[in-house]
Write a structure and sequence with these properties.
11% strand; five-stranded mixed sheet; globular; 54% helix; three-stranded antiparallel sheet; alpha+beta; 17 helices
Length: 427
Amino acid sequence: MREDPLGFPIEMQRRWGQFIYSPVGPGFRPTFFLFNPETVEQVLVTRRDNYVKSLVLRRLKAVFGESVLTSEGDLWKRSRRLLAPAFHRKALMQYVEAMDRCTVRAVDRMLAAGRFPLQQHMMEMTLDIAMECFFGSSAAGVTERVDQGMNDILGFADLAIGTLVQVPTWFPHPRAARFRRGMRTLTDVVNELIAQRRATGEERGDVLGLLLAARDDDGSALTDQEIRDEVITLLLAGHETTALALTYTLFLLSHRPALVAELRDEMAREIPDGAAPDFASLGRLRLQDQCFKESLRLYPPVGIIGREAVAADELEGWQVPAGAQMIMSIWAIQHDPRYYEEPWSFRPDRWTEAFERDLPRYAFFPFGGGHRVCIGDAFAKLEARVVLYRVLERLDLMPEQTDLPPMNLAVTMRPSREVFLTARARR
């Protein structure tokens, strides 16, 4: 798994079937690898009360605190309830303008650079969007500090996930030291944003405003620590995954000028020339949606998800003991030839209404599933629509290489090295 985290699950499935037991996994716990969408659905939906977040993800509480990503039970329900209004349709409609403004700035940077590192530019852009939409601030100095803090933290998160035993934050390791530095940086930034908002008394419908205004049933407000946990989680878990999804999508499209021409024809039909995109018009870009889905299928930003059995259970005739780790490979299932013809090919045309209707529910789950499905999935999809529209409207993109480099899988699935494109203004 360590040497080939993407190829090994597929080889496991080929050699041993759809439900595989290993006596040793994370934390030296019994571990099951699930490759059947129906079994995945049992764990994530049908029997969800018996399966909590995995041991590996719980290790990341040092990073995310007791937030919507890591908490369980009533604490998770509270976080989800407080954050939900920020991702409802009404709120999403208000984010389009900020998303578009940030994307235009990013396109200008790509054009000025000519040859540019794709993933780096997508990371910068999605962080810019997150800062504007979540906190109403994308000042250069603040964004640069957040970017550095997140890079320090994510290195430790990768270390925590990639080991059998938990690595404490005080451990004498360079990544642990950088983690401590990164947490101090992000904590300082979030504290400043909270203090500024409270000092002005300004009421906004962004995430920070909603968290500051939120009240429990007894009328009590969230503590600053609780707000920090949710804010840092949204920044870390939200912006990188979307940046990776856009990296893969734009790389794939850069090799297919004929498909890009079709996308531009669709854009011209649905959005008047020179007009800013809006929520309704973006939702009508059907071919764009197919391209993004196919990119998420081929290169899901999160390659695996896990759960832990609370009590003993039985799945596919196997006895699952309490404490067992359940590993579901999104990567392997979304490349399964039982569900996808030519599974390694980029074929957006496969995503017809009939195909989606017949596809097992958990043969495609890049945002997870069940009641713990990613709270920001609609935000990420909207963000992708805005970015793809603006980039394709203004730029011609030329790739330097035929294939993506090998992938590294830790918290997210990233290219092992940077991918470069050349941007030219459309004539």
